[in-house]
Amino acid sequence: AGTYSTGVWIVNSFAQLVAFSVVVVLVVHLQRSRDAATKLARTDELTGAWNSRAFREFVSQELDRLGRYGHPFLLVYVDLDNFKVLNDKWGHAAGDEALQLVAEAMRTALRTTDFVSRMGGDEFALLLPETDATAAPELLDRVREQILAAMRERGWPVTASIGALTIDEAQMSIDELIGRADALMYEVKRAGRNDIRIDAFRQDVA
């Protein structure tokens, strides 16, 4: 009887262990699925860059950090020049490849702590934490040169117009910041394209 009871106990214990293991595997799988779905909802499918929704979340977090600790950051808008020419002459597949190459070029040029987002079409936005007006020019020159190198390698006439806003005040809206960086980028467009314009955020600017 004792041997029988021991055998039953071993079988029951093994069954419980198997059941527990199955539950653990299912929970881990479910968590990974949720994490993947969350990331998918925040990334651009074509380029793998963050999407505009995620970008706004990151800017909000940086504004909070700025308000608490006084750490400045750089908000950048990038628009590709001659992208329509590329699509018309080389086709939309080339246009898609160009967007992928540009996103990768910017990730390569920037630090792992920086954020690359595709805002739509051929417009990208960058968020560079812990970056002030002194560090901005060198970082953005590197970004533009990396983009140009990737496009030259394919023989494509695509360049980049870049507007950047250094931010060291926390009392402003995300829409206002994005709007000003976007306006700086369009100033570059009007002035001849393929250049960088950096300005400091000023609360008194309308």
Set down the secondary structure blueprint.
Elements: H1 2-42, H2 52-69, E1 73-81, H3 83-90, H4 92-109, E2 115-120, E3 123-129, H5 136-154, E4 159-167, H6 174-191, E5 196-200
Parallel strand pairs: 4-5
Antiparallel strand pairs: 1-3, 1-4, 2-3
Helix pairs in contact: 3-4, 4-5
Given the C-alpha coordinates, what overall shape results?
A: extended
Distance between the termini: 89 Å
Task: Report the average pLDDT across residues.
Answer: 88
For the largest beta-sheet, the strand count, sense and barrel status come to:
5 strands, mixed
Quaternary structure type: single chain
Number of strands: 5
Which residues form runs of ≥5 with pLDDT under 50? Answer: none
Residues in helix, %? 55-70%
Find the structural class using helix and strand composition.
alpha+beta
- Count every helix, treating DSSP H or I runs of 4 or more residues as helices: 6
* Estimated radius of gyration: 24 Å
Key terms:
5 strands; alpha+beta; 6 helices; extended; 5-stranded mixed beta sheet; 206 residues
Task: Write a compact overview of the structure shown.
With 206 residues, this protein is an alpha+beta fold.
Structure, explained:
The chain has 206 residues and is of the alpha+beta class. The protein contains 6 helices and 5 strands; from the N terminus they run ααβααββαβαβ. Strands 2-3-1-4-5 form a 5-stranded mixed sheet, sandwiched between helices. A hairpin with a 2-residue loop joins strand 2 and strand 3. The radius of gyration is 24 Å and the shape is extended. 33% of the residues are buried. The model has no long low-confidence stretch (mean pLDDT 88).
